[in-house]
Amino acid sequence: MKRLQGLLPFVGVAVLLAVWSLTVWARVVDPVLLPSPIATFRAMWIGMTSGKLGVDFLKTVERTVYSTAIAAVIAIPLGILLGSSEKVYRSVEFLIDFFRSTPASAMFPLFLVLFGVGDRTKISVAAFGAALVILFNVAYGVMNARKTRILAARVMGASRLRVLWDVMLLESLPQTFVGLRNGVSLALVIVVVAEMFIGSTDGLGQRVFEAQQLFDMPDMYAAIFAAGALGYGLNLLFLTIERRFVHWSGK
Amino acid sequence: MKRLQGLLPFVGVAVLLAVWSLTVWARVVDPVLLPSPIATFRAMWIGMTSGKLGVDFLKTVERTVYSTAIAAVIAIPLGILLGSSEKVYRSVEFLIDFFRSTPASAMFPLFLVLFGVGDRTKISVAAFGAALVILFNVAYGVMNARKTRILAARVMGASRLRVLWDVMLLESLPQTFVGLRNGVSLALVIVVVAEMFIGSTDGLGQRVFEAQQLFDMPDMYAAIFAAGALGYGLNLLFLTIERRFVHWSGK
Amino acid sequence: MAGAQPAASIELTDNAREAARRTAPHVTIRGLTKRFSDATIYDNFDFDIPRGKLMSVFGPNGCGKSTLINMIAGLFPVDAGEILFDGQPLSQIKFGYVFQNYREAMFPWLRAFDNIAYPLRVMGVPKAERITRVEKIVAGLNVKIDLNLYPYQMSGGQQQLVSIMRALIVEPEILFLDEPFSALDYEMTLFMREQLQRIFVETSTTTVLVSHDLEEAVYLSDRILLLSRHPARAVEFVHYDAPRPRTPGTMSEADFISTKAHCLEIFQREVRKG
Amino acid sequence: MAGAQPAASIELTDNAREAARRTAPHVTIRGLTKRFSDATIYDNFDFDIPRGKLMSVFGPNGCGKSTLINMIAGLFPVDAGEILFDGQPLSQIKFGYVFQNYREAMFPWLRAFDNIAYPLRVMGVPKAERITRVEKIVAGLNVKIDLNLYPYQMSGGQQQLVSIMRALIVEPEILFLDEPFSALDYEMTLFMREQLQRIFVETSTTTVLVSHDLEEAVYLSDRILLLSRHPARAVEFVHYDAPRPRTPGTMSEADFISTKAHCLEIFQREVRKG
Amino acid sequence: RAVAQDKVSVGVFPISSSLPYFVALERGFFKEQNIAPEMTRLMGGPPNVAAMMTNQIEVSAVLVTLEGLNADVKKPGVAMYIAMHSQTKVWKMEQFVVRNGFKAETIADLKGARLMSAPGPANVNTAKAILAKNGLKEGDYTIDQLDMGQHVNAMTAGTFDGGYTLEPSASMMIKAGVARSLEAGLIAKYILGDEAADAYAAGCAMTSEFIQKRPEVARHFAAAWSKAIDFINKNPDEARKYLAKNTFTPDNVVDMVPMLGYVMVGDMTPKQIADLQKFADFGNSIGVVPEKLDVTKVLQKL
Ligand SMILES: Nc1ncnc2c1ncn2[C@@H]1O[C@H](COP(=O)(O)OP(=O)(O)OP(=O)(O)O)[C@@H](O)[C@H]1O
Ligand SMILES: Nc1ncnc2c1ncn2[C@@H]1O[C@H](COP(=O)(O)OP(=O)(O)OP(=O)(O)O)[C@@H](O)[C@H]1O
Ligand SMILES: [Mg+2]
Ligand SMILES: [Mg+2]
Question: Which residue owns the Cα nearest ligand 2 atom 26?
């Protein structure tokens, strides 16, 4: 039973591959545009072992990790602070919702000007996007925290700051993890898009873009698949941390 | 006091404008690249009243609303269903995290093939992206629901389906709204990006792209500002609905 | 002739079955085992809950009273053993249940009125009838609460009252009351005891009451189950058969006093042991 | 001489002030008004909480007992009126507080031990001392709970015990106990009453106890505040001055019985009114 | 006599190269041929090719040659060129620019410069090949590809010293006074090795399915296209006006944006076809076109 549970995530993979194979087999889509899973995995295998894909993958991992880390470090404390006072949050909500709804790619020109063409731009745009999502979730988590526990801490003489730290932070943890998981996925998406559209010589996005330009569909889907798998992996990481630390949710 | 509270959202706007003006005034960025708020609002005013911007705005609203509606209708029930059994959720988590972490723009070619070159592609890619985020949040909300209430419903003889509907749906509502607000913002972003990169004769994304190509910065920022404001507006809509219906959060 | 015989025998069997059903235990617990992390709460526990009796469970904090009724109601899984209803492994039984944490068992998105009516909605009772039935029970219990409030707008006692009404409204087959009067005021507690007794006399519903008030437990019960510290054993299953309806006067009868003293003695002996 | 006079006068004033402080009320409530949606809970309510006394609040469900202590502790805002501590509008007072919904006031991310130690952590007590103090109170109350459990792994009574220990550990200036024994078993309730009395005798902490058990309320209290249905009035402020320590024997004394009977009579008259 | 017009679905990437489409449309050349084009805006090669492969469009008004050839390798006949657009020293398109203030007179002076390039492997490799022909090895410069929409921005902000860019971005930065052109007609000179050669970097393509299933309509379409090309070649200044509202060409540079050398496939000389072949072979050599391809196989004379 326990052993079977470890296999659960692979059900999703299997479903994806089955639908994909079926689509190719039934020729719903021209095979030039959608290669078979086998062709894709061959391209992925070759790319990972001998080609550039492995290097690109690591580059993208690096950028994503940096931007998520920056985003988390900024957004979690800020989110708790903002969420702890609904009024303050309402007053900056415009900014958060505004920028959350603006495509990161529309922000590229501005960030390009501020940070140049190097990695800094890509990381900072991604961190910006991820920070907004994390901030939003953390603030929500704090605002929806159970009031009784906050009152209990206050009556025990906890200062505002202590209440923030000891109660609100922990109360909002389940929601914070939702935010982190949304954030890391978004950071990855933005990094990939930035690699596609702002000058880059490496990274999965550049790989996707180049393969797209060359109509090398197996390569393109191999890179996309690598990005998706990376996203799942990063999510899994947060899930594992969450399971370790947030044992009380729903209790 | 009450009257002042109505003004809170404008604090955010004021901050944005102040920082913006300051940046322009201090010439941190070349004014050709970042026009002043006044120039932008002039462009916006002209665009909205006499130019094409108004039409584009409405087109984008329409597409965003459609895609969010489709996403919500599919993702909320599915999220509750999946969230109600952690095992089932874990088995499809790969798919959800995978596609959440894949840039929508990388999915364009596939959707283009499946849904054609018209509006359907833009709406369906956006709906797909938004649905994943909503699904994720709803499922999380259900999984973190307070167990006692579910037990109470079960002991009163409620069937699995009733528990889903009467308890889990409502328990997960605060989180569902987080998902909806994330979802509507994402749908808007994807619609705009699709308008930019797949190609379109109207919509804010097309406006941004065109202005960018023409190097008409006031026009570009006017369109971006319109998109951001639209995002805020849609978020506000959900916030208002949430406040009406979810009176018990944290209680 | 050959055809009539089986029919008669079936009839007989039916009657016999019915009679057996009436005296057979309502709930049979065999070999029940339940562990939490390192604590063993029940270890091969056997017990029969008699049909149509009001039974109290009395035992020290943390001995496993709530866990027991949660397992009987199918809310917690058992680690081993079986719980049978009329000899059947499980069935769609109508439970009435007042949770010890009544506060968290309310639905905060429903007004008090709708919380009370919820079990009826589950049963598919039409709206008009739901309203009359809620109004009836509220009038019957003489409750003076604004039922338009949401649970989180009510005081602890009010919430518990609503919770009790929600449990009673369905006319359940088995009624579980986990410290149902703990938050009620003096007057209301006495009143609700009488109401519970009245309902029990009228319907003979199998009832399991958890209470830390020994007077209350003895006053209301036909049987008192005394549990030891965990791993819980049934230390004694005390019978108290004073005729119903019992009145405050009952509490000064010798039988009552001696039963209560007996229970207390066993309880204190058991508690001081561990 | 001219210099000494003021000094002496200051000394005198200090003494006088101190004396006044000892007899002056600890908490002064003036013109307190509190409304919830359409219900008025307090309407221009005046009351003084005497210093160094154990005071019980007794009143029907929903009359506003919890709301009152929540307002005194500064957890709920008042609509009008003022609450003064030693004549000062507000100060950084160390409260001990057992919430009526003790379950939700625990921190589920902390083990029972850390929950009890939390107020000490807030005060900046170093870790080693925290551990000794928690161990001392646990030993003093003779509690047999696995303090490594998280709150949601404990029974209702165990949670309430933890909650009580958390309130007592800081040696608070004012202690609020909102139905603190409602989930405790028979033996534990008696035991905790004695412990509360012992602590009170030792420290003379101003204590406000909400209880629906009249016997308990009278047994423990110097003063019993009888509240009416809301809008709450102080119907009577009963004094009960039996010497401490009181013992179970106290409950058969005439003074106790008459006080209890008097309170009950007033309570029932008030309850039946509304 | 009202006859139902023939509908043709056309994918249009609204850059200046798609001018013949707008001329044909606005001057009624399509109407004359009883054709009602249904335009879909599709940004760049990939969406155009995808749409052609799935028969969602029948004509792509402007399809980059190397992308089209690549598609034809993957799925033969998916993009049949009926007209080509030549870029040369006169018909400027690709060029090296430098920001004002950067000391460089020739491409060879770009040693040590931070360069940008039009996006995509074809552009980047072309730029590198040109730099190599001018004696600059990799490492003598840095080059980053950048989305076309960012080129003017980047030069204005001074992010780069210069780079390989396309029209109308080049005209725009020159007009804005932030950059100047070093040299144009680069492909002809350095890649094809002949300053007078035609570099056919893009063209108008049809799917062979369209040509086979509706040959008459395809012919009519080509006729209208041909007439538009004629018009542009004869009246460049009047034709220019159609750039303004239809394509991504700012009003203030409409007058200075260079025209392209538009030619119908049927009018191409053997030399011109050889130039195209040479370009295709170059594409193959840099790995953008995966196989060597006989270009006459993808040219459709209509
Ligand atoms: N999730 C859990 N993990 C570990 N131990 C648990 C868990 N739930 C309950 N327990 C333990 O099981 C025992 C029985 O709990 P239960 O709630 O049944 O007690 P109870 O008899 O109802 O007590 P009370 O009178 O205080 O309500 C307790 O000692 C408790 O610590
Ligand atoms: N948020 C709220 N909105 C509306 N009414 C409220 C709210 N909170 C409390 N009330 C009302 O205030 C009154 C007093 O509540 P409170 O909890 O103080 O009662 P209590 O005296 O502690 O009762 P109990 O003995 O049942 O605990 C109740 O009638 C309740 O309905
Ligand atoms: Mg219990
Ligand atoms: Mg109360």
Answer: C157
Q: pLDDT for D63-86, tens place per residue?
A: 999 999 999 998 899 999 999 988
Residue in chain C closest to B246 (alpha carbons) equals C109
- Tens-digit pLDDT profile for residues C99-140: 999 988 999 999 999 999 999 999 999 999 999 999 999 988
Interface probe for A, chosen from D109, D121, D173 (most Cβ of A below 10 Å), is D109
CATH number of the domain that residue D218 is part of: 3.40.50.300
What is the pLDDT at residue D15?
A: 64
Same domain, C144 and C269: no
* pLDDT confidence band for D19 (50 / 70 / 90): low
A216, part of any domain: yes
> Ligand 2 — pocket residues by CB below 6 A?
C 149, 153-158, 183, 185; D 36-37, 39, 41, 59, 61-67, 100, 230
**Residue that is last in its domain, among C172, C201, C216:** C172
Task: Annotate chain C with DSSP letters as a single string.
Answer: -TTHHHHHHHHHHHHHHHHHHHHS-SEEEEEEEEEETTEEEEEEEEEEEPTT-EEEEE--TTSSHHHHHHHHTTSS--SEEEEEETTBS-----EEEE-TTHHHHS-TTS-HHHHHHHHHHHHT--HHHHHHHHHHHHHHTT----TTS-GGGS-HHHHHHHHHHHHHTT--SEEEEESTTTT--HHHHHHHHHHHHHHHHHH--EEEEE-S-HHHHHHH-SEEEEEPSSSP-EEEEEE----SS--GGGGGSHHHHHHHHHHHHHHHHHHHH-
Sign of the torsion formed by the C-alpha atoms of C114, C116, C117 and C123: positive
Nearest CA in chain B to C97: B155
Do D206 and D274 fall into the same domain?
yes
Residue C15 resides in a domain: no
* Number of domains composing chain B: 1
* A32-36, B141-145, D173-177 — most confident range: D173-177
In total, how many domains does chain C have?
A: 2
Q: Minimal Cα–Cα distance from B208 to chain A, Å?
A: 8
Which structural domain, as residue segments, surrounds residue C161?
103-172
- Percent of the residues in chain E that have a pLDDT greater than 90, as a whole number: 16
Last residue of some domain: D153, D172, D191?
D172
Contacts of A226 in chain B (CB under 8 A): none
Pick among B15, B19, B105, B113 to test the A interface (most A CBs inside 10 A):
B105
Does one domain contain both D88 and D193?
yes
* CB-based touch E/B (3+ pairs, under 8 A): yes
Q: What is the pLDDT of residues D225-245, one digit of tens each?
A: 999 988 888 999 999 999 988
The parts of chain C modelled with pLDDT lower than 70 are: 1-22, 91, 274
pLDDT of D21: 62
Tell whether A170 lies on the interface with D, counting CB pairs under 8 A. yes
Nearest to C75 among B155, B167, B170 (CB): B155
Residue B89: give its domain's CATH number.
Answer: 1.10.3720.10
- Output the pLDDT for position D18: 64
Asked whether residue D178 falls in the same domain as residue D235, the answer is yes
Chains touching D (at least 3 CB pairs under 8 A) are: A, C
Instruction: Give how far D169 is from chain C: nearest CA, Å.
Output: 22
Ligand with minimal distance to D68 CA: 2
Query: Which atom of ligand 1 is closest in space to residue C64's alpha carbon?
Result: 18
Asked whether residue C19 is assigned to any structural domain, the reply reads no
Rounded CA-CA distance C233/C228 in Å is: 5
Answer whether B227 sits within 8 Å of A103, measured CB to CB.
yes
Residue A195, domain extent: 55-245
The torsion angles phi and psi of B41, rounded to 5 degrees, stand at -70, -30
Report if residue C3 sits inside a domain: no
In order along chain A (251 residues), what is the average pLDDT of each group of 10 residues?
A: 69 87 84 86 89 90 96 94 88 90 83 80 93 94 88 89 90 92 93 83 87 84 91 93 87 72
Joined together, the tokens standing for residue B142 give 């259900």
Residues D268 and D240 in one domain: yes
